[in-house]
Amino acid sequence: MSTTSSTASDGSATGRLIELLRALADPTRLRIVRLLEGSSQLPGSARSGVRGENGHGGDHGGLSVGELADILKLPQSTVSRHLKTLLDVGVVNARREGTSAFYRLLQESAEAQALLAMTRETLLHDPAARNDETRLQAVLRRREAEHNSADSFFGKHAPQWDQIRTQWFGDRFHLEGLLALLSPAWTVVDVGTGTGFMLPLIAPHVKQVIAVDPSQAMLRGARKRVAELGLTNVDIRQGKAERLPMENQTADVVLLTLVLAYTEEPAEVLAEARRVLRPGGVALVMDLQPHGVELFREKLNHRWMGFGREQMVGWMERAGFSGMHWFGLAAEVGRAKEAGSAGLPVPDLFAVRGVAARDGEVAGRGKRF
Q1: How far is CA 248 from CA 240, 251, 267, 315, 355, in A?
Q2: Are residues 343 and 315 part of one domain?
Q3: Residue 112, Cβ neighbours under 10 Å: how many?
Q4: Of 97, 147, 195, 338, which has the highest C-beta tally within 10 A?
């Protein structure tokens, strides 16, 4: 006996095989293995989802001790004892969800795969195993029904879900997360960067940000922000939107955020954006739609009282952009409330995206606006 024990624990292939044979040399454990394999393959398991609140689920399949006990018609203590044996030899693993543990079959070694294939073939026509499979399917259907019912966690909280998510994670995390769609190989130009408000959002996701503004006072604020946040890939340059301090075709994205309303000739600014963009690069303009709030001209130094869709798209076409996509941005509640205290209407914003036409491509082709 001592010789056998030593062989089984010496870590050799022979010892590993003996451990597996001992673990599987029990009809109940064979049935458990068969059920765990089926839990990841039968319809319903992949859709069950992780739902710790219900005590059910698992994106990777698996069954709880209680579910196995229901299927096998055995006490939970007996099932737990057999699972412990299978855990010890690495045939299964346990994944905890809330207060429950879900067991999943592992098939990592060649020995285990061979033995499990033999188990599968042996139990294929076994009456007890066939009854187990029928009850397994019932468990999986019940699990899915509970998940979809009004009594499930998401069934109960669906009406308040937006509020719950905002309470925990805020109302901007998803927008900031979408910035990860930017390519890490891109060079982005932030025209009219001001004090660099956009820089912390963009810089972590791209190769380089070139921040341009004509005002030294604004650029001092941008440099301070960049230094405090350690944004080492931001290059701050003084320059006008009509004459960007950059070589031709060196940028992948040009951002013009609330810039055009301050310029004398927006069409020239768009042409300059096209000059510095590589073919296929993108210009994104965000600005005000047409409005009549004189405060923007009198106090904020706007030269233009907003821009219409046809006007913007026409300028971009003539500048050498194609595939324009325009969408309106409605006034936010907080912004409307603040302006409303002064008795003023709140101008709506817009965003329009255009692609720098490639060599030989006709600008304006493929309109989407």
Answers
A1: 16, 8, 18, 20, 16
A2: yes
A3: 21
A4: 147
How confident is the model over 131-141, as pLDDT tens digits?
Answer: 887 888 888 77
At residue 11, the pLDDT reads: 59
Distance CA 355, CA 210 (A): 19
Q: Which residues of the chain have pLDDT under 50?
A: 1-8, 42-60, 333-334, 337, 362, 364-369
**368 falls within a domain:** no
Maximum Cα–Cα distance across the chain: 97
Query: What confidence score (pLDDT) does residue 347 get?
Result: 86
Kindly state the DSSP code that residue 224 receives in the 8-state scheme: H
Please provide the average confidence, as pLDDT, over all residues in the chain: 81
Name the DSSP letter for residue 343: T
> For residues 211 and 234, is the Cβ–Cβ distance under 8 A?
yes
Residue 221 lies in domain: 172-356
Decide if 334 is inside a domain.
Answer: yes
Report how far residue 357's alpha carbon sits from residue 352's, in angstroms, rounded to the nearest whole number.
Answer: 16
Whether 253 contacts 226, CB under 8 Å:
no
User: Cα(209)–Cα(204) distance, rounded to whole angstroms?
Assistant: 10
Domain tally for the chain? 2
Sheet holding 92-97, edge to edge: 63-64, 100-105, 92-97
Two tokens, residue 225: 């922000």
For residues 40 and 153, state if they share a domain: yes
CB atoms within 10 A of CB 69: 17
Element counts in the chain: helices (H) and strands (E): 16, 12
Q: Phi-psi region for residue 366, left (φ > 0), alpha (ψ -120 to 50) or beta?
A: left
Instruction: Examine residue 165 and state whether it is found in any structural domain, yes or no.
Output: no
Q: Is this prediction's pTM over 0.85?
A: no
How far separated are the first and last CA of the chain, in Å rounded? 81
Token reading at 61: 């399949």
Last residue of a domain, one of 127, 158, 189: 158
Of 77, 91, 75, nearest to 30 by C-alpha is: 91
